[in-house]
Specification:
single chain, alpha/beta, Nucleotidyltransferase, domain 5, 3 domains, Udp-n-acetylmuramoylalanyl-d-glutamate--2,6- Diaminopimelate Ligase, Chain: A, domain 1, five-stranded mixed sheet, 13 helices, Rossmann fold
Length: 364
């Protein structure tokens, strides 16, 4: 049996707030107050968070704090998607009523914090793990000399959680249901371990390599870009560690491109959720169809300069037909190789009817 790798314990909410929110694509940080005491506390917060935007009632608005659009719930809903954190300096009931119409899911909601106007308690109200509210509440409490109020079960028990592991290593959670399954198991004392061909450590969890003989655990977290399976209860976390190099004709549509890539990944036992970018030669990177395909796949496009490709194309099989068409002997493989930081080729150049595809694993 392979030995369990040494673990470095990390409680779920101890991950830095900034790191957690990078994955969310949300940028605004808002504080809303309603009293003179709230105003003083908001200005204190600004000294620690210069990016914080202040909003208040008409009576208290000034050059530092803008009046929010009424009703408050409408203002909150309008700023929900763009906000990484919304801080209420108010009674908890005000915050609950204001956010109620906007709440969607723990995968999408921003961190919501509520602080009393005296700055005694900092309450993590919503999106404690993925949104980072627990970490932010602790951070704010430390800065203003308050007491953080954290109620998530794994945190109060000092145990790890699925979102903490995912955030620490920029992993994709496959399903909302997986969060509840894993965290409920942990909170109720079940034995949970990680199996991975990607991680070198799994904070708070026993870690096994794929292929190890399995011990007696109740649930496994599999961290891999492969469509692996085991004969035991498990969930998946996907590393964003694959880059696709791509060449394509002008006749192929975005939908066809995305579908061919998905099918190619599935046929080769790879998770499309691990794909992080499409890389191509610079003079084709601006293609509308390519950009739309990347949007469908929820990934970015990486533009590779012609000269960089020429410097490495001799490492790969070249096509004189392709050279006559675009001035390069190969596109897909060199682009995957360069974009992956000279990583390992996972899928060699494959023709898929209108596109050529190669996939490499990002070198760490």
């Amino acid at each position: 049996m392979n030995r369990i790798m040494e673990k470095s314990y990390q409680m779920c909410s101890s991950i830095s707030y900034e790191i957690q929110n990078v994955t969310m694509g949300q940028t605004m940080m808002i504080a809303i107050f309603f009293t003179e005491g709230g105003k003083q506390l908001a200005e204190k917060l600004i000294s620690h968070y210069p990016e914080l935007e202040l909003y208040t009632t008409e009576a208290l608005s000034d050059e530092k704090a803008e009046e929010f659009e009424k009703p408050l719930s409408f203002f909150v809903s309008n700023n929900w998607r763009e906000s990484k954190a919304i801080i209420f300096i108010s009674a908890l009931g005000i915050a609950v009523r204001a956010i109620a119409p906007a709440v969607r899911s723990k995968l999408d909601d921003p961190a919501v914090i509520c602080i009393d106007e005296k700055g005694t308690f900092v309450i993590s109200l919503l999106s404690g793990h993925i949104g980072g509210a627990n970490a932010l509440a602790r951070e704010i409490a430390e800065k203003i000399g308050a007491r953080p109020v954290i109620t998530t079960s794994t945190d109060v028990q000092g145990k790890p959680c699925l979102e903490g592991l995912a955030n620490s290593h920029s992993l994709v959670i496959e399903s909302h249901e997986d969060i509840k399954k894993v965290n409920s198991a942990i909170a109720n004392g079940k034995r949970v371990a990680v199996i991975s061909d990607y991680l070198e450590k799994a904070e708070g969890f026993p870690l096994y390599t794929i292929g190890s003989e399995l011990k007696d655990y109740d649930l496994f977290i599999m961290v891999t870009s492969r469509l692996s399976d085991i004969n035991a209860e498990h969930v998946f976390l996907r590393p964003k560690n694959l880059v696709a190099g791509i060449g394509f004709t002008t006749r192929v549509t975005a939908e066809e491109m995305a579908e061919k890539i998905k099918r190619s990944f599935e046929e080769r036992g790879l998770s499309i959720k691990s794909l992080t970018a499409l890389a191509t030669v610079d003079f084709k990177a601006g293609s509308r169809e390519l950009k739309k395909a990347a949007e469908i796949l929820n990934i970015e496009v990486i533009s590779i300069p012609v000269e960089e490709i020429r410097n490495v194309e001799n490492k790969f099989k070249v096509s004189e037909f392709v050279r006559a068409s675009v001035g390069l002997g190969s596109v897909a493989e060199p682009c995957a190789y360069i974009a992956s930081k000279k990583g390992k080729m996972i899928i060699n150049k494959t023709s898929l009817g209108g596109i050529t595809l190669a996939v490499a694993e990002v070198k760490r």
